[in-house]
Protein backbone atom coordinates (compact mmCIF):
# COMPACT_ATOMS: atom_id res chain seq x y z
CA UNK A 1 0.00 0.00 0.00
CA UNK A 2 2.94 2.28 0.73
CA UNK A 3 4.01 1.70 -2.86
CA UNK A 4 0.64 2.92 -4.13
CA UNK A 5 0.81 5.97 -1.88
CA UNK A 6 4.29 6.74 -3.25
CA UNK A 7 2.95 6.57 -6.79
CA UNK A 8 -0.31 8.36 -6.09
CA UNK A 9 0.52 11.14 -8.55
CA UNK A 10 0.86 8.62 -11.37
CA UNK A 11 -2.36 6.86 -10.43
CA UNK A 12 -4.23 10.15 -10.25
CA UNK A 13 -3.01 11.30 -13.67
CA UNK A 14 -3.88 7.96 -15.22
CA UNK A 15 -7.29 8.04 -13.52
CA UNK A 16 -8.01 11.47 -14.98
CA UNK A 17 -6.92 10.28 -18.42
CA UNK A 18 -9.27 7.28 -18.27
CA UNK A 19 -12.06 9.50 -16.95
CA UNK A 20 -11.72 12.17 -19.63
CA UNK A 21 -11.29 9.57 -22.36
CA UNK A 22 -14.49 7.85 -21.17
CA UNK A 23 -16.47 11.08 -20.84
CA UNK A 24 -15.51 12.41 -24.26
CA UNK A 25 -15.96 9.07 -26.02
CA UNK A 26 -19.24 8.51 -24.14
CA UNK A 27 -20.59 11.87 -25.26
CA UNK A 28 -19.62 11.19 -28.85
CA UNK A 29 -21.16 7.71 -28.68
CA UNK A 30 -24.42 9.01 -27.20
CA UNK A 31 -24.91 11.75 -29.80
CA UNK A 32 -23.81 9.66 -32.77
CA UNK A 33 -25.68 6.60 -31.49
CA UNK A 34 -28.94 8.56 -31.25
CA UNK A 35 -28.48 9.87 -34.79
CA UNK A 36 -27.75 6.34 -36.00
CA UNK A 37 -30.89 4.96 -34.36
CA UNK A 38 -32.97 7.77 -35.85
CA UNK A 39 -31.45 7.11 -39.27
CA UNK A 40 -32.15 3.39 -39.03
CA UNK A 41 -35.88 3.96 -38.45
CA UNK A 42 -36.13 6.85 -40.89
CA UNK A 43 -38.33 6.62 -43.99
CA UNK A 44 -35.36 7.47 -46.28
CA UNK A 45 -33.76 4.24 -47.65
CA UNK A 46 -30.22 5.60 -48.34
CA UNK A 47 -30.06 6.95 -44.80
CA UNK A 48 -31.17 3.59 -43.42
CA UNK A 49 -28.59 1.81 -45.57
CA UNK A 50 -25.80 4.12 -44.48
CA UNK A 51 -26.63 3.71 -40.79
CA UNK A 52 -26.86 -0.07 -41.18
CA UNK A 53 -23.48 -0.05 -42.93
CA UNK A 54 -21.93 1.98 -40.12
CA UNK A 55 -23.36 -0.23 -37.39
CA UNK A 56 -22.26 -3.44 -39.08
CA UNK A 57 -18.72 -2.11 -39.68
CA UNK A 58 -18.10 -1.00 -36.13
CA UNK A 59 -20.08 -3.66 -34.31
CA UNK A 60 -18.29 -6.47 -36.10
CA UNK A 61 -14.74 -5.11 -35.88
CA UNK A 62 -12.57 -5.74 -32.84
CA UNK A 63 -11.90 -2.49 -31.01
CA UNK A 64 -8.15 -3.08 -31.25
CA UNK A 65 -8.46 -3.05 -35.03
CA UNK A 66 -10.38 0.22 -34.90
CA UNK A 67 -7.59 1.70 -32.78
CA UNK A 68 -4.95 0.34 -35.15
CA UNK A 69 -6.74 1.89 -38.11
CA UNK A 70 -7.08 5.23 -36.36
CA UNK A 71 -3.50 5.44 -35.03
CA UNK A 72 -1.51 3.64 -37.76
CA UNK A 73 -3.86 3.33 -40.73
CA UNK A 74 -4.84 6.96 -41.20
CA UNK A 75 -1.23 8.26 -41.23
CA UNK A 76 -0.71 6.07 -44.31
CA UNK A 77 -2.97 8.47 -46.15
CA UNK A 78 -1.29 11.44 -44.44
CA UNK A 79 -4.08 12.01 -41.97
CA UNK A 80 -2.45 12.22 -38.57
CA UNK A 81 -4.49 12.47 -35.38
CA UNK A 82 -3.12 13.12 -31.92
CA UNK A 83 -2.91 9.91 -29.88
CA UNK A 84 -5.54 11.01 -27.36
CA UNK A 85 -7.86 12.32 -30.08
CA UNK A 86 -7.39 9.03 -31.92
CA UNK A 87 -8.33 7.15 -28.76
CA UNK A 88 -11.47 9.26 -28.17
CA UNK A 89 -12.56 8.79 -31.79
CA UNK A 90 -11.88 5.03 -31.83
CA UNK A 91 -13.71 4.39 -28.59
CA UNK A 92 -16.56 6.81 -29.38
CA UNK A 93 -17.18 5.64 -32.95
CA UNK A 94 -17.05 2.00 -31.87
CA UNK A 95 -19.40 2.45 -28.91
CA UNK A 96 -21.83 4.54 -31.00
CA UNK A 97 -22.77 1.40 -32.95
CA UNK A 98 -23.86 -0.35 -29.73
CA UNK A 99 -25.59 2.76 -28.38
CA UNK A 100 -27.45 3.10 -31.67
CA UNK A 101 -28.67 -0.48 -31.55
CA UNK A 102 -29.77 -0.14 -27.92
CA UNK A 103 -31.75 2.99 -28.71
CA UNK A 104 -33.25 1.43 -31.81
CA UNK A 105 -34.53 -1.43 -29.68
CA UNK A 106 -36.13 1.19 -27.44
CA UNK A 107 -37.75 2.89 -30.42
CA UNK A 108 -39.16 -0.43 -31.54
CA UNK A 109 -40.60 -0.92 -28.06
CA UNK A 110 -42.69 2.25 -28.35
CA UNK A 111 -46.00 1.11 -29.75
CA UNK A 112 -46.63 1.99 -33.37
CA UNK A 113 -49.84 3.74 -32.36
CA UNK A 114 -47.83 6.50 -30.72
CA UNK A 115 -46.02 7.35 -33.92
CA UNK A 116 -49.20 7.06 -35.96
CA UNK A 117 -51.05 9.32 -33.56
CA UNK A 118 -48.36 11.96 -33.70
CA UNK A 119 -48.32 11.88 -37.50
CA UNK A 120 -52.11 12.16 -37.41
CA UNK A 121 -51.98 15.40 -35.46
CA UNK A 122 -49.61 16.80 -38.07
CA UNK A 123 -46.14 16.32 -36.59
CA UNK A 124 -43.34 15.67 -39.07
CA UNK A 125 -41.20 12.52 -38.80
CA UNK A 126 -38.47 14.47 -37.01
CA UNK A 127 -40.92 16.09 -34.62
CA UNK A 128 -42.67 12.86 -33.75
CA UNK A 129 -39.30 11.20 -33.15
CA UNK A 130 -38.03 14.05 -30.99
CA UNK A 131 -41.18 14.86 -29.04
CA UNK A 132 -42.96 11.54 -28.75
CA UNK A 133 -40.94 8.46 -29.61
CA UNK A 134 -37.37 9.12 -28.40
CA UNK A 135 -38.31 10.34 -24.89
CA UNK A 136 -40.20 7.09 -24.34
CA UNK A 137 -37.51 5.04 -26.03
CA UNK A 138 -34.72 6.40 -23.82
CA UNK A 139 -36.63 5.41 -20.68
CA UNK A 140 -36.82 1.79 -21.72
CA UNK A 141 -33.19 1.51 -22.78
CA UNK A 142 -31.51 2.99 -19.74
CA UNK A 143 -30.40 -0.41 -18.36
CA UNK A 144 -28.86 -1.65 -21.66
CA UNK A 145 -27.28 1.78 -22.25
CA UNK A 146 -25.77 1.53 -18.78
CA UNK A 147 -24.22 -1.77 -19.81
CA UNK A 148 -22.83 -0.27 -22.98
CA UNK A 149 -21.21 2.64 -21.13
CA UNK A 150 -19.75 0.48 -18.37
CA UNK A 151 -18.26 -1.78 -21.05
CA UNK A 152 -16.92 1.33 -22.78
CA UNK A 153 -15.06 2.48 -19.66
CA UNK A 154 -13.38 -0.91 -19.47
CA UNK A 155 -12.74 -0.96 -23.21
CA UNK A 156 -10.85 2.30 -22.83
CA UNK A 157 -7.98 0.16 -21.51
CA UNK A 158 -7.16 -0.74 -25.12
CA UNK A 159 -5.84 2.82 -25.49
CA UNK A 160 -2.90 1.71 -23.32
CA UNK A 161 -1.50 -0.12 -26.32
CA UNK A 162 -1.79 3.01 -28.45
CA UNK A 163 0.21 5.64 -26.62
CA UNK A 164 -2.44 6.88 -24.19
CA UNK A 165 -1.15 6.61 -20.63
CA UNK A 166 -4.40 5.62 -18.98
CA UNK A 167 -5.03 3.41 -15.95
CA UNK A 168 -4.14 -0.01 -17.28
CA UNK A 169 -0.90 1.29 -18.80
CA UNK A 170 0.24 1.70 -15.20
CA UNK A 171 0.31 -2.07 -14.77
CA UNK A 172 3.42 -2.75 -16.88
CA UNK A 173 5.01 0.51 -15.81
CA UNK A 174 4.70 0.03 -12.05
CA UNK A 175 5.31 -3.70 -12.21
CA UNK A 176 8.55 -3.07 -14.08
CA UNK A 177 9.56 -0.55 -11.44
CA UNK A 178 8.96 -3.10 -8.69
CA UNK A 179 7.60 -6.52 -9.60
CA UNK A 180 7.20 -7.34 -5.91
CA UNK A 181 4.28 -4.93 -5.75
CA UNK A 182 2.23 -6.74 -8.40
CA UNK A 183 -0.78 -7.35 -6.14
CA UNK A 184 -0.84 -3.80 -4.80
CA UNK A 185 -0.65 -2.38 -8.32
CA UNK A 186 -3.45 -4.64 -9.59
CA UNK A 187 -5.60 -3.71 -6.63
CA UNK A 188 -4.95 0.00 -7.11
CA UNK A 189 -5.85 -0.11 -10.79
CA UNK A 190 -9.01 -2.15 -10.19
CA UNK A 191 -10.17 0.24 -7.49
CA UNK A 192 -9.53 3.21 -9.76
CA UNK A 193 -11.67 1.66 -12.50
CA UNK A 194 -14.42 0.96 -9.99
CA UNK A 195 -14.36 4.58 -8.91
CA UNK A 196 -15.65 5.28 -12.40
CA UNK A 197 -17.85 2.28 -13.13
CA UNK A 198 -19.61 1.84 -9.75
CA UNK A 199 -20.96 5.42 -9.57
CA UNK A 200 -21.93 5.03 -13.21
CA UNK A 201 -23.86 1.83 -12.44
CA UNK A 202 -25.45 3.48 -9.41
CA UNK A 203 -26.43 6.55 -11.41
CA UNK A 204 -27.97 4.41 -14.13
CA UNK A 205 -29.98 2.54 -11.53
CA UNK A 206 -31.24 5.76 -9.94
CA UNK A 207 -32.13 7.24 -13.30
CA UNK A 208 -33.95 4.09 -14.28
CA UNK A 209 -36.18 4.23 -11.21
CA UNK A 210 -36.73 7.92 -11.54
CA UNK A 211 -38.00 7.86 -15.10
CA UNK A 212 -39.78 4.53 -14.93
CA UNK A 213 -43.21 4.60 -16.52
CA UNK A 214 -46.06 2.30 -15.81
CA UNK A 215 -47.46 0.65 -18.85
CA UNK B 1 -34.58 -5.87 -46.32
CA UNK B 2 -32.65 -9.05 -45.93
CA UNK B 3 -30.64 -8.38 -49.06
CA UNK B 4 -29.76 -4.84 -48.01
CA UNK B 5 -28.57 -6.25 -44.73
CA UNK B 6 -26.21 -8.71 -46.40
CA UNK B 7 -25.05 -6.14 -48.88
CA UNK B 8 -24.25 -3.75 -46.07
CA UNK B 9 -22.27 -6.40 -44.17
CA UNK B 10 -20.34 -7.37 -47.26
CA UNK B 11 -19.56 -3.77 -48.09
CA UNK B 12 -18.45 -3.31 -44.51
CA UNK B 13 -16.05 -6.24 -44.73
CA UNK B 14 -14.66 -4.96 -48.00
CA UNK B 15 -14.15 -1.53 -46.55
CA UNK B 16 -12.14 -2.93 -43.69
CA UNK B 17 -10.01 -5.10 -45.91
CA UNK B 18 -8.99 -2.18 -48.10
CA UNK B 19 -8.49 -0.02 -45.06
CA UNK B 20 -6.08 -2.46 -43.50
CA UNK B 21 -4.26 -3.29 -46.69
CA UNK B 22 -2.24 -0.10 -46.42
CA UNK B 23 -0.07 -1.01 -43.46
CA UNK B 24 2.73 -3.28 -44.42
CA UNK B 25 3.22 -6.39 -42.35
CA UNK B 26 6.78 -6.25 -41.08
CA UNK B 27 7.65 -9.78 -41.93
CA UNK B 28 11.21 -10.32 -41.00
CA UNK B 29 11.20 -14.06 -40.94
CA UNK B 30 14.53 -15.51 -41.69
CA UNK B 31 15.65 -18.92 -42.60
CA UNK B 32 15.76 -21.19 -39.63
CA UNK B 33 19.16 -21.05 -38.02
CA UNK B 34 20.50 -24.50 -37.42
CA UNK B 35 21.46 -25.25 -33.90
CA UNK B 36 25.07 -26.27 -33.60
CA UNK B 37 25.24 -26.64 -29.83
CA UNK B 38 26.00 -30.27 -29.18
CA UNK B 39 23.64 -31.89 -26.75
CA UNK B 40 25.49 -33.38 -23.79
CA UNK B 41 24.51 -37.02 -23.51
CA UNK B 42 25.96 -38.63 -20.42
CA UNK B 43 25.66 -35.85 -17.89
CA UNK B 44 25.43 -36.40 -14.15
CA UNK B 45 24.02 -33.83 -11.78
CA UNK B 46 23.82 -33.95 -8.03
CA UNK B 47 20.38 -35.24 -7.03
CA UNK B 48 17.91 -32.61 -5.92
CA UNK B 49 19.37 -29.80 -7.98
CA UNK B 50 17.40 -27.96 -10.67
CA UNK B 51 19.86 -29.34 -13.24
CA UNK B 52 19.11 -32.93 -12.21
CA UNK B 53 15.36 -32.29 -12.32
CA UNK B 54 15.48 -30.73 -15.76
CA UNK B 55 17.83 -33.39 -17.09
CA UNK B 56 15.53 -36.08 -15.71
CA UNK B 57 12.46 -34.46 -17.26
CA UNK B 58 14.26 -34.08 -20.58
CA UNK B 59 12.58 -30.76 -21.26
CA UNK B 60 12.82 -27.16 -20.14
CA UNK B 61 10.52 -24.15 -20.32
CA UNK B 62 12.30 -20.96 -21.30
CA UNK B 63 10.92 -17.44 -21.44
CA UNK B 64 12.13 -15.19 -24.23
CA UNK B 65 10.91 -12.30 -26.32
CA UNK B 66 9.02 -13.00 -29.53
CA UNK B 67 9.21 -9.54 -31.06
CA UNK B 68 12.87 -8.55 -31.09
CA UNK B 69 14.74 -9.08 -34.33
CA UNK B 70 18.20 -10.49 -33.69
CA UNK B 71 17.52 -11.52 -30.11
CA UNK B 72 14.19 -13.26 -29.91
CA UNK B 73 11.80 -13.10 -32.85
CA UNK B 74 9.09 -15.63 -33.59
CA UNK B 75 9.48 -17.16 -37.01
CA UNK B 76 5.92 -17.42 -38.31
CA UNK B 77 6.81 -20.38 -40.53
CA UNK B 78 8.33 -22.62 -37.88
CA UNK B 79 6.50 -21.01 -34.93
CA UNK B 80 9.81 -21.08 -33.07
CA UNK B 81 11.64 -18.01 -31.81
CA UNK B 82 15.04 -17.18 -33.32
CA UNK B 83 17.84 -14.92 -32.20
CA UNK B 84 20.85 -14.49 -29.97
CA UNK B 85 18.90 -14.99 -26.74
CA UNK B 86 17.40 -18.14 -28.18
CA UNK B 87 20.84 -19.49 -29.17
CA UNK B 88 22.25 -18.76 -25.71
CA UNK B 89 19.29 -20.58 -24.17
CA UNK B 90 19.89 -23.55 -26.49
CA UNK B 91 23.55 -23.69 -25.41
CA UNK B 92 22.49 -23.87 -21.75
CA UNK B 93 19.80 -26.46 -22.51
CA UNK B 94 22.28 -28.57 -24.48
CA UNK B 95 24.60 -28.71 -21.47
CA UNK B 96 21.65 -29.96 -19.44
CA UNK B 97 21.25 -32.78 -21.94
CA UNK B 98 18.14 -31.24 -23.49
CA UNK B 99 17.87 -30.99 -27.27
CA UNK B 100 16.63 -27.80 -28.92
CA UNK B 101 13.35 -29.44 -29.97
CA UNK B 102 12.58 -30.33 -26.33
CA UNK B 103 12.63 -26.71 -25.26
CA UNK B 104 9.24 -25.18 -24.65
CA UNK B 105 9.35 -21.48 -25.51
CA UNK B 106 7.12 -19.06 -23.65
CA UNK B 107 6.79 -15.44 -24.67
CA UNK B 108 7.83 -13.08 -21.93
CA UNK B 109 7.46 -9.32 -22.21
CA UNK B 110 9.26 -6.73 -20.10
CA UNK B 111 6.56 -6.65 -17.44
CA UNK B 112 5.93 -10.35 -16.80
CA UNK B 113 9.43 -11.81 -16.47
CA UNK B 114 9.74 -11.70 -12.69
CA UNK B 115 6.20 -13.02 -12.05
CA UNK B 116 6.77 -15.92 -14.49
CA UNK B 117 9.97 -16.90 -12.67
CA UNK B 118 8.44 -16.44 -9.22
CA UNK B 119 5.41 -18.55 -10.09
CA UNK B 120 7.54 -21.25 -11.69
CA UNK B 121 5.83 -20.81 -15.07
CA UNK B 122 9.27 -20.82 -16.69
CA UNK B 123 12.55 -22.45 -15.64
CA UNK B 124 14.66 -19.57 -16.87
CA UNK B 125 14.32 -16.31 -18.74
CA UNK B 126 16.65 -15.21 -21.54
CA UNK B 127 14.92 -12.10 -22.85
CA UNK B 128 17.16 -9.01 -23.22
CA UNK B 129 16.86 -8.93 -19.45
CA UNK B 130 18.87 -6.13 -17.84
CA UNK B 131 20.47 -7.06 -14.53
CA UNK B 132 19.63 -4.52 -11.82
CA UNK B 133 19.38 -4.41 -8.05
CA UNK B 134 15.59 -4.07 -7.82
CA UNK B 135 15.17 -7.22 -9.88
CA UNK B 136 17.81 -9.07 -7.84
CA UNK B 137 15.45 -8.77 -4.85
CA UNK B 138 12.96 -10.98 -6.66
CA UNK B 139 14.98 -13.30 -8.84
CA UNK B 140 18.62 -14.23 -9.44
CA UNK B 141 20.71 -13.51 -12.50
CA UNK B 142 23.36 -15.61 -14.20
CA UNK B 143 25.61 -13.76 -16.63
CA UNK B 144 25.82 -11.15 -18.06
CA UNK B 145 26.23 -12.74 -21.46
CA UNK B 146 25.98 -9.45 -23.36
CA UNK B 147 26.26 -5.74 -22.65
CA UNK B 148 23.89 -3.45 -24.50
CA UNK B 149 23.38 0.30 -24.11
CA UNK B 150 20.42 2.62 -24.54
CA UNK B 151 20.55 4.43 -27.86
CA UNK B 152 18.29 6.48 -30.13
CA UNK B 153 16.84 5.69 -33.53
CA UNK B 154 15.71 8.48 -35.88
CA UNK B 155 14.29 8.77 -39.37
CA UNK B 156 16.68 8.65 -42.33
CA UNK B 157 18.95 11.68 -42.50
CA UNK B 158 18.24 12.58 -38.85
CA UNK B 159 15.97 15.55 -39.67
CA UNK B 160 15.78 16.58 -35.99
CA UNK B 161 19.56 16.63 -35.59
CA UNK B 162 19.40 14.34 -32.56
CA UNK B 163 22.89 13.27 -31.47
CA UNK B 164 22.25 12.21 -27.87
CA UNK B 165 19.66 12.12 -25.10
CA UNK B 166 20.12 15.86 -24.36
CA UNK B 167 18.80 16.66 -27.83
CA UNK B 168 15.51 14.94 -27.02
CA UNK B 169 14.29 18.01 -25.10
CA UNK B 170 11.03 19.18 -26.64
CA UNK B 171 11.01 16.21 -29.00
CA UNK B 172 8.49 13.40 -29.08
CA UNK B 173 10.32 10.18 -28.27
CA UNK B 174 8.80 6.71 -28.37
CA UNK B 175 9.47 3.69 -26.18
CA UNK B 176 7.62 0.83 -24.52
CA UNK B 177 5.55 1.27 -21.36
CA UNK B 178 7.17 -0.52 -18.44
CA UNK B 179 10.65 -0.65 -19.93
CA UNK B 180 13.88 0.53 -18.32
CA UNK B 181 14.75 2.92 -21.18
CA UNK B 182 11.36 4.66 -20.81
CA UNK B 183 11.94 5.08 -17.08
CA UNK B 184 15.43 6.45 -17.75
CA UNK B 185 14.02 9.15 -20.04
CA UNK B 186 11.37 10.01 -17.46
CA UNK B 187 13.90 10.28 -14.64
CA UNK B 188 16.85 11.89 -16.38
CA UNK B 189 15.52 13.69 -19.45
CA UNK B 190 12.12 15.01 -18.33
CA UNK B 191 12.12 17.67 -21.07
CA UNK B 192 11.43 15.01 -23.68
CA UNK B 193 7.83 14.08 -24.45
CA UNK B 194 7.38 10.35 -24.07
CA UNK B 195 5.01 8.37 -26.28
CA UNK B 196 4.56 4.86 -24.97
CA UNK B 197 3.26 1.80 -26.78
CA UNK B 198 3.20 -1.82 -25.70
CA UNK B 199 5.65 -3.13 -28.33
CA UNK B 200 8.56 -1.57 -30.21
CA UNK B 201 7.15 -2.40 -33.62
CA UNK B 202 4.43 0.21 -33.02
CA UNK B 203 7.14 2.78 -32.21
CA UNK B 204 8.71 1.99 -35.57
CA UNK B 205 5.35 2.52 -37.31
CA UNK B 206 4.88 5.83 -35.48
CA UNK B 207 8.39 6.96 -36.46
CA UNK B 208 7.77 6.02 -40.07
CA UNK B 209 4.53 8.03 -40.08
CA UNK B 210 6.23 11.01 -38.46
CA UNK B 211 4.06 10.81 -35.33
CA UNK B 212 7.21 10.71 -33.17
CA UNK B 213 10.70 12.18 -33.70
CA UNK B 214 12.77 9.35 -32.27
CA UNK B 215 12.63 5.89 -30.71
CA UNK B 216 14.79 4.98 -27.75
CA UNK B 217 15.70 1.65 -26.20
CA UNK B 218 18.67 -0.73 -26.08
CA UNK B 219 20.87 -0.43 -29.17
CA UNK B 220 20.53 -4.13 -30.04
CA UNK B 221 16.76 -3.80 -30.36
CA UNK B 222 17.10 -0.65 -32.45
CA UNK B 223 19.67 -2.34 -34.69
CA UNK B 224 17.09 -4.96 -35.56
CA UNK B 225 14.49 -2.29 -36.36
CA UNK B 226 16.98 -0.31 -38.47
CA UNK B 227 17.89 -3.45 -40.39
CA UNK B 228 14.22 -4.13 -41.10
CA UNK B 229 13.46 -0.58 -42.27
CA UNK B 230 15.15 -0.66 -45.70
CA UNK B 231 17.05 2.51 -44.94
CA UNK B 232 14.06 4.36 -43.50
CA UNK B 233 15.62 4.62 -40.05
CA UNK B 234 19.11 5.17 -38.72
CA UNK B 235 20.81 4.64 -35.40
CA UNK B 236 22.35 7.66 -33.66
CA UNK B 237 25.07 5.30 -32.40
CA UNK B 238 25.80 7.04 -29.13
CA UNK B 239 24.85 4.61 -26.33
CA UNK B 240 24.35 6.45 -23.04
CA UNK B 241 23.75 3.63 -20.55
CA UNK B 242 25.11 0.15 -19.90
CA UNK B 243 22.59 -2.66 -19.89
CA UNK B 244 24.12 -5.99 -18.89
CA UNK B 245 21.83 -8.79 -20.10
CA UNK B 246 21.50 -11.70 -17.69
CA UNK B 247 19.66 -15.01 -17.52
CA UNK B 248 16.93 -14.94 -14.90
CA UNK B 249 16.46 -17.91 -12.56
CA UNK B 250 14.43 -18.48 -9.39
CA UNK B 251 15.63 -16.47 -6.40
CA UNK B 252 18.08 -18.45 -4.27
CA UNK B 253 18.79 -21.20 -6.81
CA UNK B 254 22.54 -20.62 -6.56
CA UNK B 255 23.48 -24.03 -7.94
CA UNK B 256 21.57 -23.47 -11.16
CA UNK B 257 22.96 -19.95 -11.42
CA UNK B 258 26.53 -21.21 -10.98
CA UNK B 259 25.90 -23.91 -13.55
CA UNK B 260 24.66 -21.38 -16.13
CA UNK B 261 27.62 -19.12 -15.36
CA UNK B 262 29.99 -22.05 -16.01
CA UNK B 263 28.23 -22.82 -19.28
CA UNK B 264 28.42 -19.16 -20.35
CA UNK B 265 32.15 -18.91 -19.56
CA UNK B 266 32.76 -22.11 -21.47
CA UNK B 267 30.84 -20.74 -24.47
CA UNK B 268 32.88 -17.51 -24.36
CA UNK B 269 36.06 -19.58 -24.57
CA UNK B 270 35.17 -22.30 -27.05
CA UNK B 271 33.75 -19.83 -29.56
CA UNK B 272 30.15 -21.05 -29.50
CA UNK B 273 29.09 -17.69 -28.04
CA UNK B 274 30.67 -15.75 -30.93
CA UNK B 275 29.22 -18.27 -33.40
CA UNK B 276 25.74 -17.73 -31.96
CA UNK B 277 26.23 -13.98 -32.36
CA UNK B 278 27.36 -14.28 -35.97
CA UNK B 279 24.35 -16.39 -36.89
CA UNK B 280 21.78 -14.08 -35.30
CA UNK B 281 22.22 -10.49 -34.13
CA UNK B 282 25.57 -10.17 -35.95
CA UNK B 283 24.02 -11.37 -39.18
CA UNK B 284 21.25 -8.79 -39.01
CA UNK B 285 23.41 -5.83 -37.99
CA UNK B 286 26.48 -6.85 -39.95
CA UNK B 287 28.71 -6.47 -36.91
CA UNK B 288 31.48 -8.69 -35.61
CA UNK B 289 30.96 -10.45 -32.30
CA UNK B 290 32.12 -8.08 -29.53
CA UNK B 291 34.35 -9.09 -26.61
CA UNK B 292 32.25 -11.28 -24.32
CA UNK B 293 31.52 -9.60 -20.97
CA UNK B 294 32.83 -11.11 -17.75
CA UNK B 295 30.35 -13.13 -15.73
CA UNK B 296 29.35 -11.55 -12.43
CA UNK B 297 29.19 -14.18 -9.67
CA UNK B 298 27.65 -11.98 -7.00
From TrEMBL, chain B:
Record's keyword terms, sorted: Signal, Transport
Cellular component, GO, one term: outer membrane-bounded periplasmic space
Lineage of producing organism: Bacteria, Bacillati, Actinomycetota, Actinomycetes, Geodermatophilales
Signal sequence interval, chain numbering: 1-25
Entry similarity comment: Belongs to the bacterial solute-binding protein 3 family.
Protein name in UniProt: ABC transporter, substrate-binding protein (Cluster 3, basic aa/glutamine/opines)
PROSITE patterns (alphabetical): PROKAR_LIPOPROTEIN (PS51257), SBP_BACTERIAL_3 (PS01039)
Native organism: uncultured Blastococcus sp
Record domain Solute-binding protein family 3/N-terminal: where: 59-284
Protein's GO biological process: amino acid transport
Pfam family, one: SBP_bac_3
Annotated InterPro entries: Bact_solute-bind_prot3, SBP_3_CS, Solute-binding_3/MltF_N
Top-rank taxon, per record: Bacteria
Keyword Transport: yes
Amino acid sequence: MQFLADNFGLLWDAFLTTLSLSLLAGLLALVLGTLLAAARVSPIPPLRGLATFYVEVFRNTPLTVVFFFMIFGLPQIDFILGFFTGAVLSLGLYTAAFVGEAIRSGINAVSAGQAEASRAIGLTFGQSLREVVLPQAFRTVIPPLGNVFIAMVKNSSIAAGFATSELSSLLPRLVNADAGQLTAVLLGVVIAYMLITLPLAFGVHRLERRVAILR
Amino acid sequence: MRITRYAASLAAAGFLLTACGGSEAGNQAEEATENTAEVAEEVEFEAGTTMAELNEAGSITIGTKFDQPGFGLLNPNTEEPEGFDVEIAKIVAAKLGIAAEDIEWVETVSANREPFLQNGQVDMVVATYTINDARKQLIDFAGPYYEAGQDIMVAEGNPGGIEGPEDLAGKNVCSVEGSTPAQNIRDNYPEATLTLFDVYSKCADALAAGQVDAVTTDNVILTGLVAGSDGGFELVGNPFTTEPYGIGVTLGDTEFRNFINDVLEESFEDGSWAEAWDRTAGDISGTEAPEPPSVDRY
